[in-house]
Write a structure and sequence with these properties.
Fumarate Reductase Iron-sulfur Protein, Chain B, domain 2; 198 residues; mainly alpha; 2 domains; 10 helices; binds iron/sulfur cluster; globular
């Protein structure tokens, strides 16, 4: 049930002021984004149109603490099909950044490990200019599990399923133990600055 006194009328402006959120009010709720989204088969509750509708209504707390906000693959299918050029994955990214800040301030709890993964991923790019899988795993798992030991156990459990495939592709094994850097890391620094990321 929607409680009108809990709605935040400024929420849509807050989103539109974030990079990627500018086209929010163009949405006319046609559902094309949701119908073509490949994630729905795996996460039936996921509905980008509904997230947009709730955002337009000002349901700030419900939107920001919704774990489904973090399941988007950024495949851009919805963006290509949206008749209103809403750029849904960018929009979801803008909402996620607001959620991230609120979680850091202790105002909401995010029931998803995706923010930890995203940050670990970004750290690898900032440091090496490319993805370093071992670095990503070493940062992600302990943070997700809350301790180094538990993280390593969880990592081994996950990697036993697809580790051999990664090994064959050179993503794991002795050569992959050490990161390779791109030549011009200054470019990466500039991109991160431009994006407003640390
Ligand atoms: S496809 Fe575009 S206009 Fe239609 S519901 Fe999704 S975001 Fe809104
Ligand atoms: S970008 Fe995200 S919301 Fe859009 S179709 Fe792909 S997974 Fe679904």
């Amino acid at each position: 049930m929607i409680k009108t006194w809990e709605l935040d009328p400024n929420f849509k402006e807050e989103i539109m002021n974030e990079r990627g959120g500018e086209h929010l009010t163009a949405c006319f709720q046609c559902s094309t984004c949701t119908l073509g989204c490949p994630i729905i088969d795996y996460v039936p509750s996921y509905n980008p149109r509904k997230i947009i509708q709730m955002s337009l209504l000002g349901m700030r707390k419900e939107v920001l603490s919704n774990p489904d906000l973090w399941v988007c693959l950024i495949c851009q299918t919805c963006t290509a099909r949206c008749p209103q050029d809403v750029r849904i994955s960018d929009l979801l990214g803008a909402i996620r950044r607001i959620a991230d800040k609120e979680a850091e301030a202790g105002n909401i709890k995010i029931d998803s490990s995706r923010p930890i993964f995203d940050k670990a991923f970004q750290h690898q790019l900032a440091k090496y200019g490319r993805l370093y899988d071992m670095g990503l795993a070493k940062e992600y798992y302990p943070k997700r599990e809350g301790s180094f030991f538990k993280g390593m156990m969880a990592m081994m459990n996950d990697y036993k399923d697809f580790g051999m495939r990664m090994f064959k592709k050179g993503k794991m094994g002795p050569k992959a133990m050490f990161p390779e850097k791109v030549k011009d890391l200054a470019v990466m620094k500039k991109i991160f600055e431009e994006m407003g990321e640390k």
